[in-house]
Amino acid sequence: MSTALAPIRKPSTPESVVIIGGGLAGLFCALKLAPKAVTVLAAAPIGRGASSAWAQAGIAAAVGPGDTVDSHVSDTIVAGDGIVDEQVINMMASEASDRIHDLLEFGVPFDRDLEGKLAVSREAAHSQSRIVRVKGDMAGRAIMEALVSAVRQTPSIRVLEGYVVEDLIVEHGQVTGVVAREEAGGGEALKRVEGSHVVMATGGVGHLYQVTTNPTEARGGGIGMAARAGARLADMEFVQFHPTAINVGKDPAPLATEALRGHGATLHNGAGERFMLGLHKDAELAPRDVVARGIFAEVAAGRGAFLDCRTAVHDFAAEFPTVFGYCQAAGIDPVTEMIPVIPAAHYFMGGVWTDLDGRSSLPGFWACGECTSTGAHGANRLASNSLLEAVVFAARIADALKTELGSDAPAGWQDGSEASSEYLTENDHPNMARLRETMSAHLGVMRDGEGMRAALGEILELARDSHSVRFDNVITTAKLIAVSALNRLESRGGHFRTDYPDEDPDWKRRTLITLDQADAIIPELLES
Predict the structure, then answer these.
(1) Which of 223, 478, 486, 514 is the most exposed, fewest CB within 10 Å of its CB?
(2) CATH number of the 244-344 domain
(3) Using one digit for the tens of pLDDT, what is the confidence trace for 78-116?
């Protein structure tokens, strides 16, 4: 890792935290660390370029009448297909209520019922109504707006926008900072940002696929960067595809929230058949991987798939304004027409391995949010557990770091902030477009050994022809997904192999891997 760069505003105190990422996990961690000194680096203005802001449904928490933490845990374990870390999900579900109240204190306007209690809704694979929402489908946006406002007003948080982190600085086995490329104002200078601890909150991998609900920034670069620095990864084969992206050819694809099916919306093919009835006892409320495969099969067969909300939603514009707006923009009236849908890369269960407090395998390096694999989701994330995981682990990292940090942020710490008013989304380089096509063709909703070996060969060729350090990080993540998927000889959760369609008890476990280990087994995988 590069260490010869001049530092950017070397902290006046050696005890400061560098947070990579301006989404929910990164901002919540920064706020919970106050009044300790924090520097947040974000490629886009904070709150933008983050999947958190696009989350429609809300946060899962056992706060409704009749619901229990044990029930939440049980539902998560079932959805996770046998490999959820029960210690992790017990902790996470137990702390959910406290984190909801933290968000309320930061100004998040969660929906309430007529008695003033938090209103909750139900989603697929939940046995109870436990999704805390904002105006039906605006939770992600409302949460991010509240946190961005709080961060801007917190003196201990310095925000540097327009900085893309490309490398971790590792000195004597300890992560001591990052190398970032400044892109604000058209600059391309490399900067060294130092801190006594680094927290990664860089999001997921959706943009590795041609059809995704994620923003362009969700390319898995942070995960690849961590792998290149030597961090341990976990469960890299498990990619979750949201069943009901709106199929109107947009990139990213707009999302028709799962809450619509929770309200009674049904799925039909072009012939009018309600195809999920024959695939799972819970039909449209089956786990996401089951519904995604059902829709994928209908689309692949040329029959198409459509979400019928016409009788399920009483006042669409008021109850689901985000989805209603997406449909209107595409020329669809969901009140009178069915919505065409398609599975889209949505959430990554794999990522940087962490312990219960968000520590990675590298000293000084922590991680939270979608870039991690904590064991909370197993092979298939339960709906709305993602935002919960982000805030729970962000808070636990903050609590752990506060015991290691001494003095608070010095006066004027926030004065070094740089707010970016201009932000241009990067267009796909031809190599990136080629990678996305490869991932979708061979490492998507349904996979097989022959296709995945072809994909791995293509990924290795793209790696040899890499055009930037940033692409090195992205292609590293793609390689680790391919290696892990080829190595798991069964189907489980979000990983479905047509050549190994059944679960294998010998694979009822999480998988751990490093980049060196992946490189060592690639020749064997390509020959098998």
Answers:
(1) 514
(2) 3.90.700.10
(3) 999 999 999 999 999 999 999 999 999 999 999 998 889
